[in-house]
Design goal:
Length: 519
């Protein structure tokens, strides 16, 4: 259970992909975790339909990617506002989107969470959040086995765009209002004369009919300058009439599995942390779901926050580390809101926008433009702010092949335990000496890169570094080349910033001299 006087270390509100991924990350970091979910069972709504490169990479670095690959299908194309993008296999081991429906993602994440010891209470909506200097209490409107309240050291709202946690914590949610309405539903279309329809532009908007699985289609209709009241219920008949307005027919639409509504409102929490309450996923940001970025953005929020919150809970880092979560992730979501506003604008059904789309498509044939857009959508271009002394600092570490005395491995395989890794690639002793006070928290690994050059998305090939410090989320905190310092003040500063102060010499025992993974 949790810290003295608490039921658990962290309460996560919401058992969607973000909440479940965060629960797994926190368990790997050694925290006790309880998830409270208002729904009685997993939703059947297939809202999100894919995982991008960066999300596949973080699943790979935790050793669970094969589960997801077995449940989905890789697709070699993507789009920016319906204009096709091509992907470059050299930029990642996982360059192509994985088409996998959200219920499958949630099922696999929940199975992993349960394996790791996460407790999940369903039919447990949060109605009260009260925090003090020592913890936070979540009052639950619960049925079944869930308690009436949970006391934790921290609480994270992963409860969607209408987040109750965000409202109870008094966190603002500024942004831009909707300019259009889209309806979405999984239905049978017996009279559709083709296998699928993708983004067909017509007067008033556009529509799609996508065959994810045999026997049914996902129908999406988008009508501009037609903004629905978000509180009104959504019906199958509304979807049918919208398709008739746009396509002139309903293609025999029948047997709805589910129907929902979305729009292009774009809002973002003005702070991701209010004391002991934090936000992640749609609770922190909503946007037009263009390019399949939403679920991926939330999962990557979780991977950024999980190790930091776990380190604070375990006493391995100061509480101030949590402020870096907002510093790093708020600009990322801000950029996604920006590009999805652009994609919404490019979807308008008028002559001026059609001309703009033609011009836009004509420049997308250039490799640099295509690369810029695809890296934006997949987050391959992501670099967190900080010391830019090395091209790798702030970026995700490439999954380079490594040679060791025991055989070969990959960088990502070193991150399965979700611990930081100090990777020494050229046999120097400087890094080991500099990191001596952190070997209780950081694994020192000596290896050799099997390639002389590493590919960095958006940058190209760079010489393999001499040494680098990799955070548990896979981002590089410090790196040095062969002609640079092997350790010293810059490395110690990075270690202190991300993993707290060093142990005193008197506390360093023989078992801590080399860390977990020395080769």
């Amino acid at each position: 259970m949790g810290h003295t006087g608490t039921d658990t270390d962290v309460v996560i509100v919401g058992a969607g992909p973000t909440g479940l991924m965060l629960a797994c990350e926190l368990r790997l970091a050694g925290a006790d975790v309880t998830v409270a979910e208002r729904l009685s069972r997993r939703s059947d709504e297939t809202r999100a339909g894919g995982l991008h490169s960066r999300t596949l990479e973080v699943l790979d670095q935790r050793g669970v990617l094969d589960r997801f690959l077995a449940a989905g299908e890789l697709q070699p194309v993507g789009h920016f506002s319906g204009l096709y993008l091509e992907f470059d296999p050299s930029e990642s081991r996982h360059p192509y989107p994985l088409m996998i429906l959200q219920p499958a993602v949630e099922r696999l994440l929940e199975e992993w969470a349960v394996e790791l010891g996460v407790r999940i209470h369903r039919s447990a909506g949060v109605s009260r959040v009260e925090q003090d200097a020592n913890g936070v209490t979540a009052g639950l409107d619960a049925t079944g086995t869930a308690p009436a309240a949970l006391r934790a050291r921290y609480l994270v709202g992963c409860d969607g765009g209408r987040s109750t946690v965000r409202k109870l914590a008094g966190i603002g949610f500024p942004g831009t209002p909707a300019t259009m309405t889209a309806l979405i539903g999984d239905v049978e279309l017996p009279d559709l004369p083709e296998e699928y329809v993708w983004g067909r532009r017509v007067a008033g908007g556009n529509f799609s009919a996508i065959a994810f699985e045999p026997g049914w289609h996902r129908v999406i209709t988008s009508e501009y300058d037609r903004v629905a009241d978000g509180t009104d219920p959504v019906t199958f008949e509304q979807l049918r009439k919208s398709l008739i307005r746009l396509a002139g027919t309903d293609y025999g639409m029948r047997a709805p599995r589910w129907v929902s509504r979305f729009n292009d409102a774009a809002r973002q929490a003005d702070r991701y942390r209010a004391g002991r309450v934090l936000l992640a996923g749609d609770a922190a940001h909503i946007h037009f779901p263009a390019g399949g970025q939403g679920l991926n953005l939330g999962v990557q929020d979780a991977v950024n926050l999980g190790w930091k919150l776990g380190a604070v809970i375990r006493g391995r880092a100061p509480e101030s580390l949590l402020d870096s979560y907002h510093t790093e992730r708020h600009p990322v979501a801000e950029a996604v809101l920006h590009n999805t506003r652009a994609q919404s604008a490019l979807g308008r059904p008028d002559a001026q926008t059609e001309a703009l789309r033609d011009v836009f498509a004509s420049v997308m044939v250039y490799d640099d433009v295509n690369r810029y857009l695809r890296n934006m959508l997949t987050a391959l271009d992501l670099r967190y702010p900080g010391d830019g002394g090395h091209v790798l600092t702030g970026r995700r570490v490439p999954d380079a092949g490594l040679g060791t005395p025991d055989g070969t491995t990959r960088v990502y395989e070193l991150l399965a335990a979700a611990r930081p890794v100090l990777l020494e690639l050229r046999g120097g002793a400087g890094t080991a000496v500099a990191a001596r006070g952190w070997t209780d928290r950081v694994d020192l690994v000596e290896a050799r890169s099997t390639d002389s050059d590493w590919t960095v998305p958006g940058v190209g090939g760079i010489p393999a570094p001499a040494a680098l410090l990799v955070r548990p989320d896979g981002h590089v905190a410090w790196a040095a080349d062969g002609d640079g310092p092997g350790g010293g003040p810059a490395l110690r500063a990075a270690l202190t910033t991300w993993f707290g102060p060093p142990l005193p010499d008197s506390a360093i025992g023989p078992s801590q001299e080399s860390g977990r993974g020395t080769f």
